Amino acid sequence: MAGTSLLALLDDIATILDDVTVMSKVAAKKTAGVLGDDLALNAQQVSGVRAARELPVVWAVAVGSLKNKAILVPAALAISAFLPQAITPLLMVGGLYLCFEGFEKIVHSVLHKEEKAARKQQLVAAVANPEADLVVLEQQKIKGAVRTDFILSAEIIVIALGSVEGKPFLEQALVVAMIAIVMTVGVYGIVAGIVKMDDAGLYLSKLGSAVVRAVGRFLLNAAPVLMKILSVVGTAAMFMVGGGILVHGIPGSHDLLHHAQQAAGAVAGLGPVLALLAEPVINAVAGLVAGALALAVVGGAGKLWRSVRRAG
């Protein structure tokens, strides 16, 4: 009897783990949209420190990220257990914030190029200055990166939780915890590779073999290009993921998307390709519009608040 119970328990555990694996894949796909932006932001945050301190800084930020998730995961699971009706509104808020953040990045990159360049020059000068307090500079970078990670981690956790909404609590807990760990290891493992890419290229470019030197030069040239690609892809993904969350939160949106895919699929020659692109394009456009509106509202509210404070 005990053996039978043990086998039944093992079978239940295997079933749960199989379900968790499947749901984790679904959650990972949904949270992958945040990953590109997460990589770009964190790689930018830890750049600018001296080469010997890059990996320790990445490690310190990764530890901070795990601490963030140690707060966020129980909080998200508590909401799921005691206030499940709040998951959809939280998802909508998270989606809107993604769109807002993405549109703000575009506006800032267009309108504040000189300010960004000046800030970069100040950072380079501070690192090059032998009298600069590099410990303070490093700690400031770590704190800034951990704050950024908290926002991005919250987005990832909420999206992951939304993908397992309605599932048993144990499965929710395992999926969200798994996504939190995998995303942390994946993001900061790749960030470590990105920030050391130029060092690896410099090292290889000084070796004897012509082929190895060519690889080194390629890595040196590819590092800044990779950062720009990650930033662009991450921003586009923010609109597609955030817009997708908002669109799917609107009643009847599934039917509208289905009709749009059918109409796109009916186009002669390009139908299959257009049908495949219809949903992500609609999501991205919705994300752009939502981001623009959110930025306008936030900017207007900020101006109103400043005028009220000046008047007071």
Q: What do these coordinates show?
A:
The protein is mainly α and 312 residues long. Helix content is 89%, strand content 0%. The protein is built from ten helices and no strands. It has helices at 2-46, 51-82, 87-111, 113-128, 134-163, 169-195, 197-205, 210-248, 253-265, 271-311. The longest helix has 45 residues, at 2-46. The relative contact order is 0.14.
By helix and strand content, what is the structural category?
Answer: mainly alpha
**Rg calc:** 23 Å
How far apart the termini lie comes to: 77 Å
- In one word, what is the shape? globular
Q: Which percent range fits the helix content?
A: over 70%
How is this structure best summarized?
The protein is mostly helical and 312 residues long. It is built from ten helices and no strands.
What distinguishing features does this structure have?
312 residues; mainly alpha; 10 helices; 89% helix; 0% strand; globular; disordered N terminus
